[in-house]
């Protein structure tokens, strides 16, 4: 059974998550849907009833759905960054490659430097975007349904697709040769997912 200290920390972390969600103007169901979770499941995290909320990978996934970071979650919690996690922060230095579905919050200074560009080489996403189109994507920002995304795989390959949905085991995307063709990608094969924020078509 968890001690009262751990229970209060879990509650504080859950309240911080709820505050971040409200700042985004999302319901629990809407936030959960972004990562393939029910609103009830999301609510258990906000109520401090899931101890896995202390895990850095879970924090990255939840805050990524809100366009934020685990650091933002810590700062939102009462007492700032006083709420502890199971792993030291040095386990994921800023210059290390991002693993899992991490995100950098748009509210932090320097967030604009996390916007990258990519030129499409094929027409497999037409008419959404054709060969020669330059896509700007926010590194690590989780996409909404129907939004373009850049998927970096663990084996080094990169795919540009339209996001459909995801759950714990896999994510489903569209655009593997045709916009009406779905593709399933195992979450364990994904290093990062980044939302496309603009398309710059050649004149």
How many separate helices? 5
Describe the largest sheet.
Answer: 7 strands, antiparallel
Mean pLDDT level:
76
Q: Can you identify the CATH class of the largest domain? A: Mainly Beta
Give the topology string: H per helix, E per strand. HHHHHEEEEEEE
- Please give the CATH architecture of the largest domain: Ribbon
Can you tell me the overall shape? elongated
Helix content: 10-25%
How many structural domains are formed by the residues? Answer: 2
The low-pLDDT segments are 80-113
Order of neighbouring strands in the sheet with most strands: 1-2-7-3-4-5-6
As a whole number of angstroms, the C-alpha radius of gyration is 18 Å
Question: Structural class, judged by helices and strands?
Answer: alpha+beta
GO molecular function: DNA binding
Protein name: Transcriptional regulator
Describe this structure in words.
The chain has a 7-stranded antiparallel beta sheet, with no helix packed on it. It is built from 5 helices and 7 strands, in the order αααααβββββββ. α1 packs across α5 (70-76). 33% of the residues are buried. The protein is α+β, with helices and mostly antiparallel strands and 203 residues long. Helix content is 25%, strand content 23%. It has helices spanning 4-23, 28-33, 39-46, 56-64, 70-76; strands at 115-119, 134-138, 148-153, 158-166, 170-174, 182-186, 190-200. The chain starts with a helix and ends with a strand. Residues 80-113 have low confidence and may be disordered. It folds into 2 domains: 4-87, lambda repressor-like DNA-binding domains (434 Repressor (Amino-terminal Domain), Orthogonal Bundle), CATH 1.10.260.40; 111-200, Umud Fragment, subunit A, CATH 2.10.109.
